[in-house]
Amino acid sequence: MESLSSTTLEAIQLLLSGNAELWSLIGISFSTTFKAILIATPAAFILGYLLSSTRFPGRWALISLFNSLLSVPTVVVGLLLYILLSRSGPLGDLKLLFTETAMVLGQIALAFPVLVAMSLASFKAADQRVWETARTLGAPPWRAFATLLHELRYGLAAACIAAYGRIISEVGCSMMVGGNILNHTRNIPTAIALETSKGDFSQGIALGLVLLLMALGLNICITYLHRRSEASA
User: Fold this and answer.
1) Which residues contact 135 (CB under 8 A, 6 or more apart)?
2) Angle at 149 between CA 70 and CA 219, to 5 degrees
3) pLDDT for position 202
4) Cα separation, 196 vs 141, whole angstroms
5) Which of 218, 196, 205, 189 is nearest to 25 (CA)?
6) What is the pTM of this model?
């Protein structure tokens, strides 16, 4: 117990001391995940809206595909992306393997199904009179869509938070396509796996505390957004 307590105390001191290597890992994690969410969100919301409002052959197959992708292990996504980006792969000439860009691409692939599935549920539950009223008043399609997004802002924000929670803590994809290179592609989850395997529990616990605080913050945000959504219904 004393050993665990001392290690945890050392981990907290490591965080508070402003250790450059530790905060570099944290910075890389937040940088790649925010980029992935920012890139994936617009297209995912548009697709979610189209799936909810239009009827076309194969629509239910596409919806089923995105729902199935929610449970695909991250390491499988990483493996497929590794094959595509490797030297012998179709995208090998881009030389993206073991770069932050590759990590962002992998995280986009992981976040996109979550954003589509959750935004689809929000759009299905939306009052279609919002869109119809905006169009009746002469708003162009993009303005009517923006009005609908504002009406569903709490549910869509919850979708973004859920997608972010999936990618900030994933290990498999980042390890496969990023290579876990110090100061370049090593992020919080891959560093925890590496440092723990080396017996450096203080740094592993320090990074674990960051993820725990992040998870707590995300859950608080989702709960708050659900309550606001119910209050405004």
Assistant:
1) 141, 144
2) 50
3) 87
4) 52
5) 189
6) 0.90
Q: What is the DSSP string of the chain?
A: -HHHHHHHHHHHHHHHTT-HHHHHHHHHHHHHHHHHHHHHHHHHHHHHHHHHH---TTHHHHHHHHHHHTTS-HHHHHHHHHHHHSTTSTTGGG--TTSHHHHHHHHHHHHHHHHHHHHHHHHHHS-THHHHHHHHTT--HHHHHHHHHHHTHHHHHHHHHHHHHHHHT--HHHHHHHTT-TTTT--HHHHHHHHHHHT-HHHHHHHHHHHHHHHHHHHHHHHHHHHHHHHH-
pLDDT reading at 223 higher than 70: yes
Phi/psi at 88 (5° precision): -90, 0
What domains can be seen in the chain, in order of their start residue? 2-125+151-232 (1.10.3720.10)
